[in-house]
Amino acid sequence: MTANTWRIPLPPLCIFMPFYTIFNRTRQTWIATRVELAHTAHWRRVGLLKHDQLEIGQGLAIPGRSWIPFMAIHTIGMKFPIDVFFLDKNKRVVGLFTVPPNRMVCVLGAQCVLETAEGTISTSSTRLGDEIILTIN
Fold first, then answer.
1. What is the DSSP letter of 1?
2. What are the tens digits of pLDDT across the range 21-64?
3. Domain coverage including residue 97
4. In a domain, 8, yes or no
């Protein structure tokens, strides 16, 4: 099994990781245009802890593992709240949360998590069941 079970397009080996864009196909709205991929165990551990804040348009995509039937994230040690999108294997939204610092959220059936700036859920008008598209910039 590979870490890319959610089929996020991975680039060939390079010096830096490209950014991804996230588009809500159902609502025809942009969710984020500068999203990093947590593609290694190190990036999963670090997550957004290296940031002092996130601007609208920034985010982090965390692909799931096919043998784990849920996704969970935490904001322990973070300095700011985030909007979190949980997606299933069909890239449909199965969970939406604004998570303050020092909290944990888990969603059964999720296979990918998108962590974005606070306010992104409302500005993108995203709702449960919406279809999301991720592409490499």
1. -
2. 999 999 999 999 999 888 766 566 666 667 677 889 999 998 88
3. 20-136
4. no
DSSP state of 19: P
Distance, in Å, from the CA atom of 7 to the CA atom of 53, rounded to the nearest integer, reads 28
What pLDDT is attached to residue 54? 83
Long-range contacts of 47-51 (CB under 8 A, 24+ apart): 47/73, 47/115, 48/78, 48/82, 48/115, 49/77, 49/78, 51/80
Burial tier of 6 (Cβ tally within 10 Å: 0-12, 13-18, 19+): buried
**124 lies in some domain:** yes
Higher per-residue pLDDT: 73 or 52: 73
The number of domains in the chain is: 1
Long-range contacts of 39-43 (CB under 8 A, 24+ apart): 39/3, 39/4, 39/10, 39/63, 40/3
Residue 6 is assigned to a structural domain of this protein:
no
Residue 74 to residue 47: CA distance in whole angstroms? 10
Question: What is the β-pairing status of strands 112-117 and 82-87?
Answer: antiparallel
Whether 5 maps to a domain, the answer reads no
